[in-house]
Amino acid sequence: LTPEQQEALIETGKEAGVYNNQVQAEADEYYKNLMIEEGVTVVEPTEEVLEGFREKAKAFYDEGATFGWSDGLYETVCAAMGK
């Protein structure tokens, strides 16, 4: 592929990823609401629980830059962890 074609594929892949995440988030919310309507109790983690998870996960993500993740993913994970 030419450099232009490669870039087009990379950009399209990134756009598809963003779109997929949006569609998945909407589906998650939809099905969560269906379950709530049927009487399921949904327990959302507190910030304290999330912080505990982030702390335990740091060791794994500290090595993330060496895993060959896609461009920007490591930085996104770090930002989500408050790093």
Descriptive tags:
2 domains, 83 residues, mainly alpha, flat
- Terminal Cα span: 37 Å
Structural class, please?
Answer: mainly alpha
Largest sheet at a glance?
Answer: none
Radius of gyration: 18 Å
Order of helices and strands: HHH
Strand content: under 5%
Shape: flat
How many distinct domains?
2
Mean pLDDT over the residues: 88
Q: Share of helix among residues? A: over 70%
Low-confidence stretches: none
How many H/I helices? 3
Q: How many β-strand runs?
A: 0
Task: Tell me about this structure.
This protein is mainly alpha-helical. It has 2 domains: 1-43; 44-83, no CATH class. Helix content is 71%, strand content 0%. It contains 3 helices and no strands. The protein has helices at 3-37, 47-62, 73-80. The longest helix is centred in the N-terminal third of the chain and has 35 residues, at 3-37. It is flat and about 55 Å long. The N and C termini lie far apart (37 Å).
